[in-house]
């Protein structure tokens, strides 16, 4: 195992709550109501695709031009950026900082495979930016998760083959993306929702360098 590829939201930090509040503000302005249950569909989904899902929910899918949709997505992002402004290392999910340090000390490469264009800013706020060897720019992808492209690209940017990597995700679409890239997948969350993963743990503090290496080895035996 040469590299570990991380999702951001739900694995390194919990930005889902901020995304939800920012989308809710926008949706309300459009007369659309969204709740936490609907928000589950937006996890791991790109900004543009999230807006499409919200407009579809309000039956407003064909009511806006491309330019108007871009303006709506930009206004959500402005609100979101204000919310993440106060993030700090206190917002790192349990066990993640020591995991990243352990993996680095063990000479493993670390990659970020997040759909978020705010990924680099958030890693800097958390004080984790320097630990990462590469960050995929989601704006350069032709397709988002569940397409395998983002995880394939992360491996490629690190100079690794997919068989040398493990991918870590909290969303079903993300696990599908890892699996379709032929990368060993570890998921954090609900065992039923994430059953497609090679291994599911309940919380981030269960992720250790030893566990990740063991799962990779088992999958390559
Ligand atoms: C995250 C979130 C999604 C969000 C997406 C794009 O994905 O889970 O809800 O829509 O990033 O974020 P932004 O608007 O900041 O570009 P991930 O892949 O980190 O779980
Ligand atoms: Mg996620």
Automatic annotation (TrEMBL):
**Chain residues that bind substrate:** 7-9, 23, 42-47, 50, 76, 114-118, 145
Question: Signal sequence span per UniProt?
Answer: none
Catalytic positions are: 7 (nucleophile), 9 (proton donor/acceptor)
Q: How is the cofactor bound?
A: Binds 2 magnesium ions per subunit.
What does the UniProt keyword field contain?
Magnesium, Metal-binding
An individual GO BP term: carbohydrate metabolic process
Positions bearing the site annotation: Important for catalytic activity and assists the phosphoryl transfer reaction to Asp8 by balancing charge and orienting the reacting groups: 114, 145
Q: Which residues bind Mg(2+)?
A: 7, 9, 169-170
As one GO molecular function, the record gives: beta-phosphoglucomutase activity
Q: What's the superkingdom here?
A: Bacteria
> What is the required cofactor set for this protein?
Mg(2+)
Looking up NCBIfam families in the UniProt record yields: bPGM (TIGR01990), HAD-SF-IA-v1 (TIGR01549), HAD-SF-IA-v3 (TIGR01509), PGMB-YQAB-SF (TIGR02009)
Q: Which PANTHER family match?
A: 2-DEOXYGLUCOSE-6-PHOSPHATE PHOSPHATASE 2, PSEUDOURIDINE-5'-PHOSPHATASE
Homology family? Belongs to the HAD-like hydrolase superfamily. CbbY/CbbZ/Gph/YieH family.
The protein's name in its UniProt record: Beta-phosphoglucomutase
The organism is Carnobacterium iners
